[in-house]
């Protein structure tokens, strides 16, 4: 029985992991976000936001204070790259919430040694209003 529960916890049918509101609020107090580039209308954390249809990857984020919790699937390297390059624009701050996967190419190419700050989250976040913690550790990357 434990084996079934564990394997279900480690798999995900979705790449969307909605940020816990309380966790976001603490970051928002510090950064005062005004753009959420990868959300749904239902889970957007900022009034200005882009859904999958509006394709936040193709939008200009310059001049914004961006909170980015991208889909955690195969597209995540594109989001990390986008966050890095957008953060280099004048008056732009980008803060990402992503899985703490320090062994990935995107971590070494765009985060390690390039981010202003990396905050490793102690414990597991409870995404999507779940009672159980995520099956992976998380980190906040500040560009």
SSE topology sketch:
Elements: H1 2-10, H2 21-31, E1 65-68, H3 76-87, E2 93-99, H4 105-111, E3 117-120, E4 138-142
Parallel strand pairs: 1-2
Antiparallel strand pairs: 2-4, 3-4
Helix pairs in contact: 3-4
**Classification by helices and strands:** alpha+beta
Termini separation: 43 Å
The succession of helices and strands, N to C, reads: HHEHEHEE
Report strand %: 5-15%
Secondary structure: number of strands: 4
Low-confidence segments, ≥5 residues, pLDDT <50? Answer: 1-12
Main beta sheet, described? Answer: 4 strands, mixed
Q: Helix tally?
A: 4
Question: What is the helix content?
Answer: 25-40%
Spatial ordering of strands, largest sheet: 1-2-4-3
Radius of gyration: 15 Å
Q: Compute the average pLDDT.
A: 88
Shape by Cα distribution: globular
Task: Provide structural commentary.
The chain has a four-stranded mixed β-sheet with strand order 1-2-4-3, with helices on one face. The protein contains four helices and four strands, in the order ααβαβαββ. The radius of gyration is 15 Å and the shape is globular. The model is unreliable at 1-12 (pLDDT under 50). The chain is α+β, with helices and mostly antiparallel strands and 143 residues long. It has helices at 2-10, 21-31, 76-87, 105-111; strands at 65-68, 93-99, 117-120, 138-142. The chain is 27% helix and 14% strand. Helix 3 (76-87) links the parallel strand 1 and strand 2 (93-99).
């Amino acid at each position: 029985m434990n084996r079934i529960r564990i394997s279900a916890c480690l798999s995900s049918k979705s790449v969307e992991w909605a940020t816990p509101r309380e966790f976001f609020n603490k970051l928002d107090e510090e950064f005062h976000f005004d753009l959420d580039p990868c959300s749904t209308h239902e889970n957007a954390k900022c009034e200005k936001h882009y859904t999958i249809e509006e394709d936040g990857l193709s939008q200009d984020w310059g001049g914004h204070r961006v909170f980015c919790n991208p889909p955690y699937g195969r597209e995540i390297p594109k989001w990390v790259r986008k966050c890095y390059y957008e953060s280099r624009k004048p008056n732009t701050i980008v803060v990402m919430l992503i899985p703490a996967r320090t062994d990935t190419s995107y971590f070494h190419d765009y985060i390690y040694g390039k981010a202003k700050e990396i905050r490793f989250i102690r414990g597991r976040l409870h995404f999507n209003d779940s009672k159980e913690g995520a099956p992976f550790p998380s980190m906040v990357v500040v560009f």
